[in-house]
Amino acid sequence: MTPALLVSSAVFVMGACVGSFLNVCILRIPLGQSIVRPWSRCAACGLELPGFLNLPIVGYFMLRGRARCCGAHLDPRYPVVELGTAVLYTALWQLYPPLLFGVYACLTAGIIVASGIDLDYLVIPDALTVGGLIAGICFSYLIPELHHTQNPTDAMIQSVLGATIGGGVLWITARTATWLLQKEAMGMGDAKLLAALGAFLGWPSIPFILVISSVAGTAVGVWIIKSRKRKLGVKIPYGPYLALAAVLWLVGGKWMTQTFLLKISSE
Ligand SMILES: [Zn+2]
User: Fold this and answer.
1) Which of residues 95, 130, 152 is at a domain's end?
2) C-alpha 21 to ligand 1 mean position (Å)
């Protein structure tokens, strides 16, 4: 095993463990429970579990999707989040220097939790969105490389600009939709989430995130309405699509957009 492969494997395992913790956050943050004590507990019967029963990813399959304590069905989302975080962290590790990897690992952890809570409750807690916005601006000042510059002030301006454009566009969209439909059409949580993403990723990411998230959201929305014969007007969370688009930006959208713009400008 080469050292590089060894480190990548370690990052994969770390990602799986972080994913396991993110599952706990998704379950407990909306209920106002502590995310560290007890460290692990059966989601169905509440029994406290020794840590070794909670092997990320493989644990779910070893237990055949059932809780050992009470036999309750385990949500397949647990291994999906664990595997997803592990794969994502491994990809980010390959793509970015360690410092940027650290920041993006925190960012993706936050947006995975935000997506999970949005799917369950159709809200995203301010602690994640407003907290993420403040963290994004602070990180930008401390690590200006996030915005391809060495100057902390420039990076902070980029960050604030990204937050304002991202949050502003969705805020105006939400206001307009509410006014047109005469009812709340879109939560402000989505605007705050895109503001936080803009603070980390800068304004150039915003058009990409808006396009990809709308296309993905519309496709899945149409599919849900058709397959479940649900009425139009049913609430569909938008946060997970914003999160998905932000992740795609980090793992390739950034470079795709750059190449595309260079091609257009050279023609
Ligand atoms: Zn149980």
Assistant:
1) 95
2) 18
